[in-house]
TrEMBL record:
Domain of life from the UniProt record: Eukaryota
Protein name: ABC transporter domain-containing protein
Pfam families attached to this UniProt entry: ABC_tran
ABC transporter domain residues: 5-38
Protein keywords: ATP-binding, Nucleotide-binding
GO molecular function: ATP binding; ATP hydrolysis activity; ATPase-coupled transmembrane transporter activity
Organism expressing this protein natively: Escallonia herrerae
GO cellular component: membrane
Classification via InterPro entries: ABC_transporter-like_ATP-bd, ABC_transporter_C-like, P-loop_NTPase
Amino acid sequence: MAVLENGDNWSLGQRQLVSLGRALLKQAKILVLDEATASVDSSTDNIIQDIIRTDFKDCTVCTIAHRIPSVIDSDLVLVLNDGRIAEFDTPARLLDDKSSMFLKLVSEYSTRSSGVPKFDLDVIPENLSIPNTE
């Protein structure tokens, strides 16, 4: 299959995967992901998250995401509200703070995802507690 200019005949998800592959080949030291997995299915999302966690472990990764599993094991989380910084701390500290917006987002995600594995516990640091939403 021929590739059209700018990959116009590829899906957004395919273009995102090619971009991630290019970053891998370039051995990028900084990786900025803006909804990197928004246009892929959950299986591909899991593969991408695994690649980011393993192959970019020594890089600075800035992730803009709405999917909680994309950021739950990050070193730091920045929560925006109406375009302003509302919270900035480690996921563990934010989850320990009962007034945290991040805690509310995680709880809401867990509630909406009932019946679906909430988080891959193999990639969440041991000192990070996921709130019980039951």
